[in-house]
Amino acid sequence: MKLFVPLVGSLVMIGCCIFSSPSGVSHDVQFVQIFMHTNALDELDTFRGTYQKDLIPGTLKTTMWLTTREQDIIANALDHYRFFSLPDTIYKRPTYQSVEPDLGPQMLRIKYKNQDKTVVWDSPIDPHNKSKYFIERLTQLIWDIVTSKPEYKALPPTKGGYQ
């Protein structure tokens, strides 16, 4: 009986940290939820547990969840880069200006604790924009985490590029 109580307590703690999705895949609870659309068609969506890679041409979608440790790193960066204080639109390119390739609006939505914020910008961001540093560092951190994951590494390489 003495062994039973700690064992049940351990199982409850494990159950609090792991979630089983409808597809039956176990993953850590996503306490930091992210939707990030960068480049033309790259998208991380931890609300749904997917990552879409732009293969140029075409796309490929795979299952992707963040670990508790990865989410802790991102949560710390949210404070450091003042994400929830950033303006909703960081940079909107003037209509008279054009870039090639035009990758369209870039977006980062993060839901964490009682906060849910979406930030949108056109790329490249004006170098004089005060928020440029913060959004670039945060998206690079998330991108570094994504590209280090085995799910990303198992995807085929990009075949082309935008001109």
Overview of the molecule:
By secondary structure, the protein is an alpha+beta fold. Helices cover 29% and strands 27% of the residues. The chain is built from 4 helices and 9 strands. It has helices spanning 4-17, 68-80, 132-148, 150-153, and strands at residues 18-20, 26-28, 32-38, 42-45, 50-54, 59-63, 89-91, 106-112, 115-121. A 7-stranded mixed sheet has the order 6-5-4-3-8-9-7, covered by helices on one side. Strands 1-2 form a two-stranded antiparallel ribbon. Strand 8 (106-112) and strand 9 form a beta hairpin. Helix 2 (68-80) packs antiparallel against helix 3 (132-148). The radius of gyration is 19 Å and the shape is flat. It starts with a helix and ends in a 10-residue tail after the last helix.
